[in-house]
């Protein structure tokens, strides 16, 4: 900032950087889209890493262009400082998202609401569902809950209800792995009830 350098060949630098930036942007968008579709945190993180590179390149391009246009050499290092702050912010965001994925974080609230709706709509014959627990690990969404059935219900009938619930959850939630604990009426602990 105190001793900015004279820019040499700014037009060639801008042209080469613009082409590289466009290629990086296209590849980054592909990685993010494909990674989200496949529920791959690694691919999404790679895509966001490239987006950070794109933002860096755009910042460099703007800095060079403004410094060339105005003759103010200090604009180039000033833009570099802005780009550095953006890189730190993107790094923090990627680290936080990666740690959440590795720590088996519970599913998002909208997904949790959807799971509860699916259970409520497909548990005919059961009395109650409770103790719903969810977690995501990469592409898999683990869903676990207790299902209360009438004490006199046969194992076969309880199993049919569970099969119906598992099928509905697998169809409605990407990568669902479902575990249902069946309890007879009268022995259930009433905690976190899903209305059926």
Give me a quick take on this structure.
The protein has 196 residues and is an alpha+beta fold. It contains five helices and three strands, in the order ααααββαβ.
Keywords summarizing the entry:
single chain, 196 residues, alpha+beta, Alpha-Beta Plaits, 2 domains, 3-stranded mixed beta sheet, 5 helices
Description:
This protein has 196 residues and is of the alpha+beta class. It folds into 2 domains: 10-102; 109-184, Cation efflux protein, cytoplasmic domain (Alpha-Beta Plaits), CATH 3.30.70.1350. Helices cover 61% and strands 15% of the residues. It contains 5 helices and 3 strands; from the N terminus they run ααααββαβ. It has helices spanning 10-38, 41-70, 75-102, 109-122, 155-172; strands at residues 128-137, 140-149, 176-184. The protein has a 3-stranded mixed sheet, covered by helices on one side. Strand 1 and strand 2 (140-149) form a beta hairpin. The longest helix has 30 residues, at 41-70. The chain is rod-shaped, with a radius of gyration of 27 Å. The N and C termini lie far apart (65 Å). The model has no long low-confidence stretch (mean pLDDT 82).
